[in-house]
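Materials and Methods. Structural model of YdbS-like PH domain-containing protein. The 160-residue sequence of YdbS-like PH domain-containing protein from Myceligenerans xiligouense was retrieved and submitted for structure prediction as follows.
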Amino acid sequence: MTSPFDPADVTWSRVSTRLTAARLIPATITFAVPIVVGVVLALILSPWFWLLAGASAGLLAWTAIVVPRQVRAIGYAEREDDLLIRKGILFRSLTVVPYGRMQYVDVEAGPLDRKLGLAKVQLHTASVGTDAQIPGLSPEEAARLRDRLASRGEARLAGL
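The predicted structure was written out as tokens:
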């Protein structure tokens, strides 16, 4: 039996595992501040501040467990008439973007992404609510996908 999130005739492409580091580094920095503040205040003022440090450390540990699983759940597949993007573990989502509905395709990379050799492809369609993005691609794959999607979109638009 096939799942609505895993069509039978689809071969999924995965994103880079370096996306895990790109998501864990900012989380570590974010949680490190309350951990350090909690430890310092617990040593100086009151042992109650250990709760702040402990809760932040617990959230960081949970993030370190969840993020790699989330990254492994991201995939995309190019089909004849559309692009499929899936993501999520607990709340799964499958986005189908018909090539004929694409208006333009962006490739983005922030400073950390560039340092880790990653890029994100963002698809813009006629629908405002479409969340069609593929993070964690190598810059070469992002450029190839951008060019391929743009040419397929133009071909489908010309056929209308």
